[in-house]
Amino acid sequence: MLNVIRISLTLIALIATASSQEDPQLGSARVVFQTNYGDIEFGFYPSVAPQTVDHIFKLVRLGCYNTNHFFRVDKGFVAQVADVVGGRSAPMNEVQRVEAEKTVIGEFSDVKHVRGILSMGRYSDPNSAASSFSILLGDAPHLDGQYAVFGKVTKGDETLRTLEGLPTRKEGIFVMPTERITIHSSYYYDTEMEICEKERSVLKRRLTASVIEIERQRMKCFP
After folding, report:
1. What is the CA radius of gyration of the chain?
2. Is the pTM of this model over 0.90?
3. Could you report the per-residue pLDDT of 159-198, keeping only the tens digit for each?
4. Which residues contact 212 (CB under 8 A, 6 or more apart)?
């Protein structure tokens, strides 16, 4: 009997561990960065880092990441987006600058830093994250709980692999590309709205087909 209880408790612990390691649910918003080496699409974890998600998504909607760049590409580690205040090649308007200069609190979680994860950059102050963030290019457990995870890449791993193959140079602790990796533009969309549009299109086709069939039957039965 005791053995059965021990086995049951072990199974419960394993199930709990597996559940805790599951990816958090992505929100419906998607952002696409169009770079000179291809597109990168990502989604957000609003349940993990709500304030960070709101801040980054607002920067995207304001166009703050347009003409910005990846200043760091360390193969197998991270590709890091520059802070938009100093990283853009185009000047910022006042609305963009006000939002870009804001910082967010460190929303640290137990989500693991693995390939594809988006994680905020910051200084030594845990609440100093602004607009720079990293895309993980490999597992980095030493970052877990130290940097705020707020989303993950949903499409564009081939673009990330292209970036990893570019020539780099070492500057202090940073591995940097020798040529500028520019985010030419960005856009966003909602996956739920996209699904609704598809369903609406299907329904419209079915209604049209039904109308045609009703008219055909009417002509046949009531010439």
Report:
1. 24
2. no
3. 999 999 999 999 999 999 999 999 999 999 999 976 556 6
4. none
